Amino acid sequence: MPKVSPKARRLYVRVPVWANLLGGALLVTQVITGISLAANSGATPTALPRPDRPAPPRPVTATTPTPEPTPTPTEEPTPSPSPTLEVDRIAEGTVVRLKKYSGTPSQVIGEVRDRKARLRYAELGKPWKPAKGQPEGLFSDGRYSTRQSFVTEEYGPDLDSEWFADIDAQRLWSDVDGGDSPYDAAVAMLDYKQENNFPRGTKGKDVASQRVPNGWLVAREMRMPPSELGRKARLELAVAVAVETGADRPSVIWITIPDTHKRLWPDIATVVSSLRVLR
């Protein structure tokens, strides 16, 4: 064992007995505490709870999209052609002069000068209303450029329907095929009017076809079926005069007077004989 030096021995002697006892007690306490810690250090440690693992994702089954059915194209209905007009025609080139009708012609009160149609002709007095141009605005009562007309009769249960006599001037409309000659243009106007402005079932008979200055005249009797509303007029004398004016389309004078006023049929000759190109 190691030896204690005299100085250390003197320090040890000076320490009181109670201090030595207290130190020994503390030493014993530390030894016991150390043994206890050492024993506890050999114990099996408590396992910490493991965190829950997320459930593995379920496999997603790929869905094959169902193709949409391709629509079968529907053919648009082909418009039905207009029913063939019933007309007894005078062939082009065949001249049949306009008949001289008996009656009392209207008085000539002036001259109509239509710059759009490039025509001038006699203006008639009563019962014809004064000549007028196409009204401005959205509403129209026809496709003329100048008109003279009058009401020939009122009919229907409440007399709310009217029939007219007309003298219209206009350039041949672009939607009407005027053909290659004034004869074709006059016939085209008559056919259009018969199909669109007369009752269904109207039968036409051409009664005149002749040359006029710068154009051609065709006259047609429009024979109408009986009216369920009580219209008295059964036949109408209609005349189309196509005139070459130097424009890209001919101009046409349209004259129509029903048989209820056939006393005025001489007015047709009055207008036709006065018709000239407006220079």
TrEMBL record:
<feature type="region of interest" description="Disordered">
    <location>
        <begin position="42"/>
        <end position="86"/>
    </location>
</feature>
<protein>
    <submittedName>
        <fullName>Uncharacterized protein</fullName>
    </submittedName>
</protein>
<feature type="compositionally biased region" description="Pro residues">
    <location>
        <begin position="66"/>
        <end position="82"/>
    </location>
</feature>
